[in-house]
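Hi support team,

I submitted a single chain yesterday and got back a structure, but I'm not sure I'm reading the token output correctly. Could someone confirm the output below corresponds to the sequence I sent? I've pasted both exactly as they appear in my results page.

Thanks,
R.
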Amino acid sequence: MTYRLDSDVPFSLGEVVPRGSGPPRSKGWLRPPAMPIGLAEVLDRSLQGGDDSDFFYWTSAPKNDRIVAWVFNECQSSSWRKKVVDQLATYITVDVFTSCGRFTQKVETIPENLIKKYKFYLVFEESFCSDYVSGEFFNVLNHYVVPVVLGGANYSALAPPLSYIDARDFRSLYHLAEYLKYLAGHRGEYSKFLWWKAYYSVETPSGLCRLCQKLHERHAPKTYADMAAWWNGLDFCNVSKPQFVDFETVTTP
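Hi R., thanks for writing in. Yes, this is the structure output for that exact sequence:
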């Protein structure tokens, strides 16, 4: 039982599941519906008998002026994540919270207290490995804030489209910053990233329950002659990284 999807019992620290009678994950993600570009359009649609969920997208968008937050729990100045964030902060304001500096709160408590005050939250994974996603990603998804991710996982398999922003999709940190500023200044565009909350929710799966379920399935016995070879043999932590990531300081889980 590991985080890897090719494990006999894959285990994740979070899971996006359909609400109510929504389509099962096996059918694939729902696609984002057409989104309003302004409140006037939302009200007009409502008067004409349109989908009330349009109003949900608009009113759910954070109304504060704080744009980007990041919680940093490593005090080493050589951390690749800190270097990337420092560079990003030259193009857009990033509020950094850490127990290493003037903020003395336990770093684990900061997201719950501050995350809802921001439009974006940086989820830069400590390890650049296929399938590896920390619980922080799902914690952020559970709020009305858009995670900006940077890691080695296939995020499209973990969360619906337009529920996160992948830094790997941008040519540079400058282009990422410009996009975040654009969304922050256009509330209708930003609210498009909240569409999925009307159809999905975030849950914390039980690893023990999944293990128990697996034990009750009828499968032929399976053995591994060399677990180390399975764990290290497929270059799971040799995924492509953006040029703005320092390869030498990326760790493995």
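A quick pointer for reading it: Strands lie at 15-18, 66-72, 94-98, 118-124, 146-150, 165-166, 200-203. Let us know if anything else looks off.

Best,
Support desk
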